[in-house]
Amino acid sequence: MAYSDIAFDLNDNLAVVTLNRPDKLNSTTRNMHAELRSAFDELEAAGARAVLLTGAGRAFCAGQDLADLRMDGPDEIVELLENDFNPLVSRIRNLPMPVVCAVNGVAAGAGANLALACDIVFAARSASFLQAFARIGLIPDAGGTWTLPRQVGEARAKGMAMLAEPVAAETALEWGLIWQVCDDDSLIQEATTVASRLAKQPTKAFALIKQSINASSSHGLDVHLAIEADLQAQAAASHDYNEGVTAFLEKRKPVFKGK
C-alpha cells in the first residue's frame, strides 16, 4: 500500500511507523487510521519482531484533526472511537511484539493516549503530554481514563483530565507515565537502538509478557497466578527458551528467533 499520512519502513525485523502530517502536528484523520491499520497488518504479515512509533516534525500527535470531522453530532464521535481509535489502541496493546514509542514533541488528546498505549515510551526533553479533551467539553478517550489512573493514580489522572494542562516530559517520567527522557537530538537514535535490540531478543516471551501484564488489572492474585503459569508453560515450550538455556550452558550468545 502507498502511504501518505504515515511513513512505513521495515528493516531487519524492526518496523518503523511515523505519523507524517507535520504541518498539522500529525493530527489524526480517517485516512491516517486506515493507513495505520494497513501498516500493522503489513508488519505482522512480514514477521516484524518490534515496532518503533514516532511522529514527523515538531509534534508526536495533536490528537484528532477537528477539520476532519463532519460535526454532525455524538454519533460521529462514537463512530470514530469504535471504528478507529479503540481498535488502534487495542491493536497496539495486543500486538505480539514490543512497541516502542518515541514522543518527539507534544502528544495531545488521543495522541497522548496513543503514545501511552505503547510498551516502552521514550520522550524528548521538550515533549509534553496533554489531556486536552476538557478544553472542548469532552472526556479523555482512546483509553485515557483507563490508562491514566493505573499509571499515575486517581488524583493525578483527574488533575490531568480536568485541568487540561501540559505535563512536561520530566514530570511524566517522575510520575511513571513513560520509561525515559532523552535529549531532543538523541531521541530517535536512543529509541531505535532499544527497539532494534528488542527485535533480536526472545519476542515470543515479550508477547506473553504483554499478555500477562495487560491481564493483571482484571484479576485477583490467585487467578493471575494461574494465568502466569499457563503463559509460562507457553514460553517454556518455545524455541527461544530452549535456545536461551542451551546458550547459557554452552557459554555463548543466544540466537533468538521469536518462536
What report would you give on this structure?
This protein is an alpha/beta fold and 259 residues long. The chain folds into two domains: 6-199, 2-enoyl-CoA Hydratase, Chain A, domain 1; 203-249, Lyase 2-enoyl-coa Hydratase, Chain  A, domain 2 (Orthogonal Bundle), CATH 1.10.12. Helices cover 48% and strands 16% of the residues. It has ten helices and ten strands. The protein has a six-stranded mixed β-sheet with strand order 1-2-3-5-7-10, with helices on both faces. Helix 1 (30-45) links the parallel strand 2 (14-19) and strand 3 (50-55). Helix 1 (30-45) packs parallel to helix 2 and helix 8 packs antiparallel against helix 9 (221-236). It starts with 5 loop residues before the first strand and ends in a 10-residue tail after the last helix. The mean pLDDT is 94.
